[in-house]
Amino acid sequence: MHVAVSAGAGAGRFGFTTGQVIQEFLYDDDVDPSVRTAVEASTGNELVDEDYGDVCDGAIIWWRSDDGEQEDLTDLLVDAQSNLDDGGLIWVLTPKPGRDGHVVPADIEEAASTAGMLATSATSVGESWNGIRVAARSRSQK
Questions:
Q1: CB atoms inside a 10 Å sphere around CB 27
Q2: Domain presence at residue 83
């Protein structure tokens, strides 16, 4: 399934809702600030960083080809999942094709599968980024 998401209106389409705590991984100066602002507006909370030590409701991972190998993304997905409340959503955001750092969706899907997760949908997020939703297993299924 492919869902078009504009950065300004897209945060709600990520599945994040008011009051949720969303953890952000691999923030850098190339991320789309309008995506971050939209997520914060839809949840009413600032994004928390990767060092946040409590349970979260969702996660955003900004992933580029030079952030590591597929195994590194698998490890990061496992780390992000370990902080999630049951049913929490993870979005892996990557630069669009033709942009520096682009990652083919199959690599994300394989990393998710290796981590025991499932890549469920893809979306366009803003002008420069695509997103793939990764469904985490509930804690009761571990």
A1: 14
A2: yes
Query: For residue 31, with 0-12 CB atoms within 10 Å meaning exposed, 13-18 middle and 19 or more buried, which class applies?
Result: middle
7-16, 48-57, 62-71, 124-133: least confidently modelled range: 7-16
**What is the token pair recorded at 56?**
């979260």
* Count of domains forming the chain: 1
Which tokens hold the place of 88? 């929490």
CATH code at position 16: 3.40.50
Q: Are 84 and 55 in contact (CB under 8 A)?
A: yes
pLDDT at residue number 72: 97
CA atoms of 63 and 42, how far apart (whole Å):
22
As a whole number, mean pLDDT of residues 91-115 equals 95
**Which residue range forms the structural domain that includes residue 61?**
2-125
Instruction: Report if residue 131 sits inside a domain.
Output: no
Q: Give the DSSP per-residue string, 71-119.
A: HHHHHHHHHHHHTEEEEEEEEEEEEPTTSTT---HHHHHHHHHHTT-EE
* Model pLDDT for residues 110-126, shown as the tens digit of each residue: 999 999 999 989 999 88
Residue 35 lies in a domain: yes
